[in-house]
Amino acid sequence: MSDHEQQAGPGLKDVLLPKLYEIFGISYKHTLYAAIAEFEDGPQLVEAGKRVREAGYTKLDALTPFPVHGIDDALGIPKSILGWIVIPIAFFGTANAFFLMWYTGAYEGPQIPGCELIGMCSYPLVIGGKPLFHWVFGLPILFELSILFAAFAAVIGMFVLNGLPRYHHPSFNYSNIRRATDDRFLLVVEATDPKFKGEDTLALLKSCGAVHAELVEDNVDEVPEMAERATL
Amino acid sequence: MANDPRQHPLLEVNPPLVQGPQTYHAITQAVSEISEGATPRKWYILTGITGSITLMLFGMLTWLVANGIGVWGNNAPVYWAWDITNFVFWIGIGHAGTLISAILFLFRQKWRTSINRSAEAMTLFAVACAMIFPLFHTGRPWRAIYWLGPLPNTDTGMWQNFRSPLMWDVFAVSTYATVSALFWYVGLVPDLATLRDRATGLREKIFHAASLGWRGSARHWRNYEMAYLILAAISTPLVLSVHTIVSFDFATSIIPGWHTTIFPPYFVAGAIFSGFACVLTLLIIARWSLNLEHLITLKHLENMNKVILVTGWVVGLAYATEFFIAWYSGNPYEKFAFINRAFGPYWWAYWTMITCNVVSPNFFWFKKLRNSIPVMFVLSIVVNIGMWFERFVIIATSLHRDFLPSSWGYFRPTYVDICTFIGTIGLFLTLFLLFCRFLPIIAIGEVKGVLAEQRNPAPGVHTTSQVVDPKFEPVALVSNGGGH
Fold first, then answer.
1. Domain harbouring A193, CATH code
2. How far is CA B367 from the centre of its chain?
3. Is A64 in contact with B218 (Cβ distance < 8 A)?
4. pTM as predicted
5. In terms of pLDDT, which residue wins out, A231 or B312?
6. Which helix (H) or strand (E) holds A205?
7. B230 to chain A, closest Cα gap in Å
């Protein structure tokens, strides 16, 4: 059966798997990803970043063990837009809290048909002669739910903006990548950069004081059968 | 002034925050190897002890559920007793973690970086201990989810009473627990990536998944720092709101001794006071047993002692204000409640509280005592004993004399009360020991950021580290310009 399929043409597996790898960021192509250079401290990295950018490169990134001051300006990385995501979601949280307290405790109009089946009808109840709804007693919960929504927005938004979680990234193929979370500062010039020219770019990076620099491939060490296909 | 830069007088005033070898790798090594090496025998012994105490907690809670909350000593007129005392006690301890991670972050207090991770972990564990009490005082915790959370139900179709401060409390505490956990995890992600890159095999895979594939890209750090700033900015009002709302549980009632407007700030100050004391207790043990003295320095501990001294005085002022207002209000019930608090049947609890909370922090006026490990260790425990008594005094003394002498009483805890409380201490310590064993106890990335500033100070800023850092030419220090 499987022999038949293979002869007949690409099976489901051949179409689906590459798609899945693409979605999860696992590359199966032997293409050049970037030139990566290694520096010993933040200031050297920033200095090198400035020089590479002055040379006209635009597709730049840095991999550092902690946020290095000045690297964003040196590489031309724009400001984070996270705040603009968090603010509306925080107000959405406020609105949710308002609706929750008002609908469950103060809504006296006609019930939504079928709400009793899922226990979601409103149930106004006078307690202690207090009004059914008032923003003053609602304040603590309005505040808490706004904060809760904002916190989730900040954390999930940050990871989504960063494209995380992600299982694999081509920069992990750099020989000394493990020290990028320890004590090394990596400067990445991506191969898609219009000015990128393999050995020339490497030479420029080395002239900026890199202790090591190499061309990194976007390859398939993790998925051997895919590697075969890529070379065919 | 001596010629040797290491003897510079400024170093005594403002020592560098990262001591020991001034390399990034040394920090990675010092923190990571704690979780990488073989488990030390003393860890097994300690965890065995605290784990047994935790088992006692589970036993007590099972006993409670099987028999009903009559196994506790709460009864007319003291319907709220140790359960809420312990709840407020643990929630209060949790406050230090968020204060260190959020408020000190906004104030650019660089010394927070060595202690924020463990303080945040402590917050989570303290809140977990706290939540046990409101959950189990319902007697039927599996049903409590319908009483506490606004979940649709087809049994009664009823909803929570959002006019009640107890309901506000549910939202405040659960939001606080959730946001603290998020904050803690966001801080952990880069450090988990550091651990991943040092590990192999299954351990690497676990940390790879837990760090979500973090690679430290500059673009990621930009969003990350923004997320951290936002979390700090929203956690700051959050942490102040939590104990404020906890205090509303009391302040909105009409019980003399509870019905006071001073409660919110008084509770928040007390929470920070006890929380810092608890962080201090744990860190003194941790830095000593895990060889982290060069990262959690005496300077860090001294700063915490100063916070304890200040908040101790705020708490003392609050006690005095309560008494003054009780007299000044002219309300006979209020006056009685306070005189009875100090000289009534619970006088011993009141004076324990005063001794521990108002008298004992004053030792920290003296620099020698502020820098003495044994002194601060003892005082940090004394302060927490005092803060537990504060909550007990507020709760029990206000309730045990009702408006009518016919409904006067005296609360005595049962063994279940006592063992449950001790059990939560066991749970707290067990969780903290597990944290110390398996996760980076210090924020590796953040401490490296502080070291980077020490190594490469901004132009024009002379930091004390320039004097001790062998990489720097010793410079003539005019003033401690930027400072820490």
1. 3.30.70.100
2. 24
3. yes
4. 0.86
5. B312
6. helix A198-207
7. 7
Whether residue A88 sits in one domain with residue A60: no
> What is the number of structural domains in chain A?
2
- A155/A106 same-domain check: yes
Q: Is residue A14 part of a domain?
A: no
Token pair of B163 as six digits? 């006019």
User: Please, which residues bridge with residue A186 across strands?
Assistant: A38, A63
Nearest CB to B227: which of A65, A101, A158?
Answer: A158
A71 occurs within a structural domain = no
Q: Give the B window 427-446 contacts with A, CB below 8 Å.
A: 444-446
Mean pLDDT of B427-445: 92
Domains delineated in chain B: 17-462 (1.20.1630.10)
Is the reported ipTM for this assembly greater than 0.90? no
d(CA B192, nearest CA chain A) in Å:
10
What pLDDT is recorded for position A227? 43
pLDDT tens figures, B346-375: 999 999 999 999 999 999 999 999 999 999
- Pick the last residue of a domain from A161, A192, A216: A161
Q: CA–CA distance from B357 to each of B207, B270, B278, B310 (Å)?
A: 43, 9, 14, 11
Parallel/antiparallel/unpaired status of strands A31-39 and A212-218? antiparallel
What angle, 0 to 180 degrees and rounded to 10, lies between the N-to-C axes of helices B24-36 and B444-455? Answer: 160
With respect to residue A20, please indicate whether it lies within any of the assigned structural domains. no
Q: Do A152 and A198 fall into the same domain?
A: no
Expressed as residue numbers, the domain containing A214 is 26-65+183-231
Q: What is the pLDDT of residue B404?
A: 86
**How far apart, in Å, are the Cα atoms of A182 and each of A40, B24, B111, B216, B287?**
11, 7, 21, 10, 22
Contact A75 B194 (CB under 8 A): no
Same domain, A155 and A211: no
Render pLDDT for B279-337 as a digit per residue (tens, 0 to 9): 999 999 888 888 888 888 888 899 999 999 999 999 999 999 999 999 999 999 899 99
Q: Is residue A192 part of a domain?
A: yes
**Which of residues 211 through 270 in chain B touch A, CB cutoff 8 A?**
212-227, 230-231, 234-235, 237-238, 241, 245, 248
